[in-house]
Each structure stands twice: as structure tokens, then as C-alpha cells.
Amino acid sequence: MLRKVLKWTGGIIGLLVAGLLIFYFTMHIKVKNKRDKIYDVEVRMFEIPSDSATVAAGAHIYATRGCADCHGADMTGKIFMDEGPIGTLSGTNLTRGKGSKVAEYTDRDWILALRHGIRKDGKSLLVMPSYEYYRMTDKDLGSLIAYLKAAPPADHETAPPRLGPLGTVLSALDKIPLIPAEKIDHAWRPGRPIPKGPTAEYGQYLSMSCTGCHQPNLKGGESPIPGGVYVRDITTAGNIGKWSEQEFIAVLRTGNTPDGRAIKNEDMPWQMTNKYSDEELTALYRYLKTL
């Protein structure tokens, strides 16, 4: 009797192991196919100025769109995730120094990366949140590119991306935004420029940077970062419905909420939002109050 039980148990364990291997192999192939897909898109060109005012505007965009979180304040790149079974992910060196992937970039290559999330070889960039940037105006996108092109060369090499077994499965299940190119409307074309000012219209334009974590409807949900805290609703159904404009601005400047909570920067990047101008924070608040 014991021999039969052991035999059945061994058979069940064998089936479970085989099932897990088949599942992982399927996930691995799915991710590989996504990474190897070639995107053939039309890149609409526009002028990239190089004057000092444009570069300064680009520096502000770099500081307020989360670019430094992955590429570092000095633009030389850094590891932003190193979690064994999930993998290692890093932002590349955006200067023209040693270790750079962009040293030979043309204006077309920059636009392809930022507006379409695609590399020079036609494959998608990895984890680069271009879906938060592709609807920027030509002027703002051009300013950002001008700033990146003006960066002095600095040598720094970062480790190539590595997906662990868990990272592979999470990516295949779309729990990690690994392939930005598949989340972008590549046929999108910018409409009229949005006038800057403390208006809900300009706030809506700025809110595209919030959609990567708070979802396109800004209602929040699961964190795009494995193990991250649940992302809060930032419509009027959440705290925006309770906070005054002054309280909202104070939260995004200091990370401290009116009810005494201290927000961790890794949960909500207030160290980035505190670089927004008063005009930008006012515009964002006035837009969120309409939701």
C-alpha cells in the first residue's frame, strides 16, 4: 500500500513539475517574441532647436518627467531594479560617453525612441515609458531632445537588462510594462499646442506623466512595479476630492499629507514633483478636480 502511495505521489509531483516547465517555456517564448518583434512605423520629423532657452526648457522636462529615476540626474544611467528572480533592469547612459547607446543617435533616432518606444533596429525599447511621453507637443519633445543632445560626454556603463524566471512570467502576463511600443498609438499626431497656464486644459496635458502608475483613467490600481504598494485614485473620488489646492501643492512638494502621512518617494515620486512650477501644480490640480 505504501509503495502505491509513493508511486502516486511521485507521479503527481512529476506532472506538476512538467506542467510548471511547460508553463514557463510558454511564458519565455511569449516574451521572446515580444522582444524580437520589428515595428515598422512612420517617424514624423520636426525641427530640434539647440538654443540655450530650448535646452533649459528640456532640463526642466527631464527633471519633471521622471527621467532621472532610471537614467540618473547626470544622465549616465543607473540600475533601478535588481531583484534576483525578477531580474536586473537599468537605464542606459544618455550622454555620448563610454557605455552610451545613443552616441550615434540622429534626431530621427531620438524621436523614434521617445515618441514610439522603438530602438534603431526596429525592436521595442525595454521598460522605457514612452507611452507617457509620446503625446508631448513637438516643442516639448524637441526641448527634451535638445537637452539630451547637449549633455557633456560622461563614461558609465550599466549592466544589460536581465529577466529572471519571475520577471519573465510577470512580463508575459503584462504585470511588468516591458514592451512600451505595444502600448503606443503609433499613428497619433499632435493637435494644436496647449497654452501653458494654471488651467485644467494644461493640467490634462501634464497628467499624461501620471498615467503610467495611476492608469489612463487616473483611478489607480496595481503598481507597475512588482511588490509596489497599491496606486491611489487621484480623481475626486480619492484624496483630490478632499484636499484644497494649497494642500495638494504641499503634498507634491514635501510628500507630507494633510492627515499626517509621510509618503515614501518610491511609492509616489514627490522628489520629482517638487520640481514642478506653481503654475504646473495648479494646472494639474484643477484638471484632477474635473474628474
UniProtKB/TrEMBL annotation:
Protein keywords: Heme, Iron, Membrane, Metal-binding, Transmembrane, Transmembrane helix
Domain Cytochrome c: start-end pairs: 53-152, 198-291
Keyword Lyase attached: no
InterPro entries per the UniProt record, alphabetical: Cyt_c-like_dom (IPR009056), Cyt_c-like_dom_sf (IPR036909), Cytochrome_c-type_DH (IPR051459)
Pfam families named in the record: Cytochrom_C
TM segment ranges: 6-27
Protein name: C-type cytochrome
Gene source species: Chitinophaga pollutisoli
